[in-house]
Amino acid sequence: MAEPAQLSVRDLTIDFESYGQEPFRAVHGVSFDLAAGESLAVVGESGSGKSVSALALTRLLPEPPARLEGQILWQGEEVLAMKERQLRQLRGNQIAYVFQEPSTSLNPVFTIRSQMAEVLKLHRPDVTDVDQEIIDWLYRVGIIEPEKRIKAYPHELSGGMQQRVMIAMALCCRPGLLVADEPTTALDVTIQKQIMDLLVELKRSLNMSLIMITHNFGIIRDVADKVAVMFRGHIVETGTVEQVLEAPRHPYTKALIGCVPRLGDKRRRLPTIDHEEVDRLMVAATD
């Protein structure tokens, strides 16, 4: 008998209210399951509903204007029914986030030590030697001379180091699930590879689950166990990484994969996604 999912999302719908106008539906009936220790890549272009779906998992979207319907079960408990006190324990402690722009996530007027110490104070009050715990985590994410870096302000660190700090801050509470929302977008290519390798290694060593949100099919093969492709607020295709990459079924998935540059490709320009054509093919596929 299969173990119950650690995270189960059923028919999640997200509307945004606007004064004097009809609500805008950003997410349409999204459903997926995630087992403990499993990794899921949510792939789609900007505006497809990836990030708002991820924020909805811990109800980080302000309500209103957002209105959430459906079911979000975390370890069997309904998130949409949680009180604010329960949500504070869920956020960071059980489900943590790493966002795409670390320079806007870190507070510029506080040191790295003070920002990480605040997280530990809130979620791990049992830690007695806070400085050593922070140093250990900075070392674990690959920051050189962490004893010096804890005194630094965010602007004194490179973009790659800032993102490593964000990962350390997210993981120091040992969450069961890490949501990485485009964590390498603001970084150069070599640093992107380092950050992705770091996330894979930490996921394995900490035995945690991972949701990787990205628009790039090129980075998910070594990161995720399975894939969910989003298009205009819908999940249009799911499967293992191998299934989706090697034999995509949906026209939008095929179009996204076709936009990935490859060595030896002689095209002077990558193709753009023709949304009208995708819509036409989607309708034809359902007839």
Written description of the protein model:
This protein is α/β, with parallel strands linked by helices and 287 residues long. Helices cover 36% and strands 24% of the residues. The chain contains eleven helices and ten strands. The chain has helices at 50-56, 84-90, 102-105, 112-123, 130-140, 146-149, 159-171, 189-206, 241-246, 251-258, 275-286, and strands spanning 7-18, 21-34, 39-43, 66-74, 77-78, 95-98, 177-181, 209-214, 226-231, 234-240. The protein has a six-stranded mixed β-sheet with strand order 6-7-8-3-9-10, with helices on both faces. It has a four-stranded antiparallel β-sheet with strand order 2-1-4-5, with helices on one face. A hairpin with a 2-residue loop joins strand 1 (7-18) and strand 2 (21-34). Helix 7 runs parallel beside helix 8. The chain is globular, with a radius of gyration of 20 Å. It starts with 6 loop residues before the first strand and ends with a helix.
